[in-house]
Amino acid sequence: GRPDMAQAGGTDAAALPAALASVKGWVSAKLQ
Predict the structure, then answer these.
(1) Could you read off the pLDDT of 1-22 as tens digits, one per residue?
(2) Whole-prediction pTM value?
(3) How far apart are CA 28 and CA 3, in angstroms?
């Protein structure tokens, strides 16, 4: 993967759920 993507959450735990949600949305869009 890309280092900038891997570090996107960093130490901000609150950003993780949003990041996961955006990834799930992107995957769903790609599958349809």
Answers:
(1) 555 555 555 566 777 788 889 8
(2) 0.46
(3) 23
Instruction: Give yes or no for a contact between 9 and 16, defined as CB atoms under 8 angstroms apart.
Output: yes
Q: Cα–Cα distance between 19 and 4 in angstroms, integer?
A: 13
Through-space distance between the first and last CA atoms of the chain, rounded to whole angstroms: 23
Distance CA 11, CA 21 (A): 18
- Which residue's entry shows tokens 């599958």? 31
DSSP characters over 1-32: --HHHHTSSTT-TTHHHHHHHHHHHHHHHHH-
Q: Which pLDDT band, with edges at 50, 70 and 90, does 30 fall under?
A: very high
